[in-house]
Amino acid sequence: MTFDRDLTALAATLPGGGHAPFRPVTARRWQGELTVDREGDYELDARAQGGEGRYRYRVTPLADAPPLIAVRTPEGDLDLPAGQQIPLEILGQDDLGLSELKLEFRKDPSKPWTEVPLARFSDHPREATVQSRWDASSLALLPGETATFRFELLDDNALTGRGHALSPTFELRFPTLGELYDDLDRKQGGVQNTLEKVAEQAQELQRSLDKMSRQPPMQASPQSAQAYERSEEMKSALEHQQQLGDKIDQATQQLRESLEKAAERQAFDREMVDKLKEMAHLMEQIQSPEFKDALRKMQEALENLDRRALDQNLPQWRMESSEMLSNLQRTVDLLKQLRREEQLDALAKRAEELKTRQDALNQEHQNSANQSGKDRQQESKALADQQERQASETERLAKDARDLAKEMESKAEQKLEDAASELEKQAAPAQHEASQSAGQQRLSRARQMGEKASESLERAAQSLSQLADEMQQEREGADLAAVRRAAQDLVSLQREAEGNLGSSDPVPERADRQTDLSDGASRVADSLYVLGRKSPFITPKLSEAMGRAINQLSTSGRELGTGNRMRGEEAGKGGSAALNEAVLLLREAESSMCKNGGQPGGSKPSNSTMRMGQLGQQQSQLNSESGSLARRLSQQIRLSAGDRDQLARYADEQRRLREQLEEIQRDEQLHHELLGKLEGTRRDMQEVEEVLRNGTTDGELEQKQQRILSRLLDAQRSVNRRDFDPERESRPGEDIASRSAPELPPELLKETDRLRLDMLKVEADRYPAQYRAFIEAYLRALNGSRR
Fold first, then answer.
1. What are phi and psi of 401, to 5 degrees?
2. Is the pTM of this model over 0.85?
C-alpha cells in the first residue's frame, strides 16, 4: 500500500479483534497479507510522526464456488470400441483456478470407484480443455458386461479445501453378438425407412418438375406476377431437392457406420460385407455429378434472376432428377434384399453364440457340483439366473426366425419354421429345466439338461447356417450366370458391329443391321436393369455405357439410312467402343462376385481371426476350470497331491496358450496385421502360469484371467476391423461445420451455475484478452448475478 507521507507503523484489525502486521518496503510503501474469511469491518491503523489515521473498509467476501465440468466426448453411453481406447474431451472452469481432473470407474455398483488421473494443472488456470484417451482394458470386460465411469474436476482452494464437481455417469458396454445384430438391424432399418420416404417425396418433386417443363417459357417481364410465381415455384422445388439430397447423404453415412461396426465384430461373411460396401458406394452415386451440376446452375440462375437460364436448365434438371429417382428406388429394393440376407445370417450366428455360451454354463454346472456350503448355494443361484436369461434369448431367437419366415419363399419358410420349432420346443424348455434344477442345487440334473439344450442349439445353428449358405449360393450363382451371359451377348454384338462397319454390303442393309444391333443392346440393357435390382455390383457406369452404345448404334443406323456414310460409321465406332466398355465393366462385376476363390459363398475368416478366436475359446475354458479349483482351494488349509497335479496341468495349459499367442505375435509383427496390444496379454499369461505352478492362488488370479480373455476378444475384433480396410476415395473439399459442445444435464443447470456455464461455453470461441472483463460483466448482467 502506498501513502502520501512517511509512516512509522501500519497494522490491520480484522473482524473479531484479530490483527495482521504490515512491513515497510519504503517509508511510504508497506506490504502485508490478511485472510478475508468472513464479512465485517476491516481497519487499517497508520501512524506517522505527525499523528495517526484509521481507515475502515466494509468487506463482503464471496464464497468459493465449486468448479464446473462439461463432457464433450463421449456424448453418452457407448459400446467398447476395438482397441479399448476411449477418446475423451472435457471442458472445465472455476472462479479461482483448477488443480486436477480425474476419471473414476467401476464394474460392480456396490464397490468403490477406482481413480485414474487425467490431468494436473500446475499453473491453476481458470479454464481448461483436456483431450486424452483412456485405456479401458483394465476393466477386463467380457461380452454382455458393463462398467460405469465419470469425471471429477477439482479446484485449487487451499483455504477451506478443494471444491469438486462430478460429471454425469456414462455406461461402457461390451455388446453381445445378439445385441450387435439388433443394433445393426435397427440402424439399417432406419436407413431403409429414410430412403423410402425420400423416394416418395422425390416422386412428388418429379411430378412438379414434369408440370413445370410442360409450361411454355415465360414471355412476360421479370417483374410480372406470373414470372414471379414461376420463379418462386422453381425456388421451392430446388430447396426441396436440396433437402432430399441432405437426407440421402445422412442415410449414406449411417450405412457406412453400421458397415464399419459389422466388420469390426465380423458380424457377416466377406460376401455380405462386400455387398454392403458396394451398397454404400451406390448410395453415394444416387446424386450424380451431372445432377449436382444441374442443381448448381439452377441455383445460380435463381440468384441472378436469370429467367432465360432457368428455362434452359429446367429440362436437364428434370432429366437428372428422374435418373436420381430411378437410382433411389433401385437402392431401396437392394437394401430390402440385403437386410433379409443379413437377418438370416444373423439368426445362424446368434444360434452359434447361444450354443457356445450354453457349453460354458454346462462346464460351470459341473464345477459348482464340486463345491459345498454357502459358496455352492450362491454359485447355484447365479447359474440359475444365467440359465434363465439364456432360455429367454433362445425364445427370442425362435420368434425372430418365425418373423423372418413370413417374408421368405415357401422352401426357406419351412426350414425357418423347423429351426424355430427346434429352438422353442427343445432348446428353451431344456434351458428352463436346467435353471430350475440349478436353483434347487441339483447341479448334475442341471448339467444334463444344459447338454440337451446345447445339442438342440447346435442342430438349429447348423440348419440356419446351411439355409443361409444354400440361398446365398443359389442367388449368387444365378446372378453370376446372368452377368456372364450378358457379357457374352455384348461381345457378340460388338463383333457384329465391327464386322458390319467394315462390310462391303449395300449401305441400306448395313443401316438395318446397325438398327438391329441397337435393339439387341436394348434387350441386354433390359436384362441388366432387372439384374441391377438384385445385385449391387451392377454399377451406374455400366448403365451409362449401355445407354451410349444403344444411342450410338441407333444413330449409326439412322445416318447410314439417310446416306450420311461418314457420320454413320463414326457413330457406329462410338457404339462399338461403348459396348467394349460395358463388357469390361461386366468383367469387373463378375470379378467382384467371384473374388473369394471364384465361387459364391466361399469366403473364410482371415487366419489371424481364426487363430485369435480359437485362442479365446481355449482361454475361456481354462479360466472356468482353474477358477473353480481356486475357489475351492481358498477354503482349504493345505494343498493335496491331487490339487498340486491339477494346478500343474492348468499351468502347462496356460504356458501352451502363451506360446500360441507369442507365435501369433511374431507373425503379426511381420505382417503388421494386428491392431490389439498383445504384449500386456502375454505378460499376464506368464504371471498366471507362475501363480498356478506355485499353487499360490491369490485373489488377483481370476481378475488377471478375465483381463486376458477380454484382451484376446478385443484383439480378434481389431483384426476384423483391419480386414474391413475401407478404400480411399478422392472427394472434393466440403465445408464442415465444427461440432458444438453437448448440452449439460439439467441437474447441473442451477441458478448459481448459469454464469459459469456461459463462461464455459464461451471458451470454445476465442476472443481477445482485453475484452474478457466486458464479456464477463455482460454475462453476469444477463444472469442477474452480483459477481
1. -65, -40
2. no
